[in-house]
Amino acid sequence: MFAVCVEEGSVPDDLLGQLMGGDNLGDDYIKSWETASSRALAAFEVPGALDKTVKLPFGEMPQGWR
């Protein structure tokens, strides 16, 4: 979910439902974790990624907020 937010600015509702309530791990949960975490790290490493605002399910926030 966070990789999609950083890449696109928000997560479409249909995808959000899948990510929040679906089986996102499948049979190989280690591979699924590695794929998702690598994608998130790559998204946050793009220059300027932390300067944007993202729309999360609970509201809009600056990506660089801690």
Report on this model:
- With 66 residues, this protein is of the alpha+beta class.
- It has one domain (2-62).
- Helix content is 50%, strand content 12%.
- It is built from three helices and two strands, in the order αααββ.
- It has a two-stranded antiparallel ribbon with strand order 1-2.
- Strand 1 (53-56) and strand 2 form a beta hairpin.
- The chain is flat.
- 6% of the residues are buried.
Record the SSE blueprint.
Blueprint: H1 2-8, H2 13-21, H3 29-45, E1 53-56, E2 59-62
Antiparallel strand pairs: 1-2
Helix pairs in contact: 1-3
Helix content: 40-55%
Low-confidence stretches are: none
What order do the strands of the largest sheet run in, or round the barrel if closed? 1-2
Shape by Cα distribution: flat
Percent of residues in β-strands: 5-15%
Radius of gyration based on Cα positions: 13 Å
Order of helices and strands: HHHEE
Q: Kindly state the number of beta strands.
A: 2
Count of helices?
3
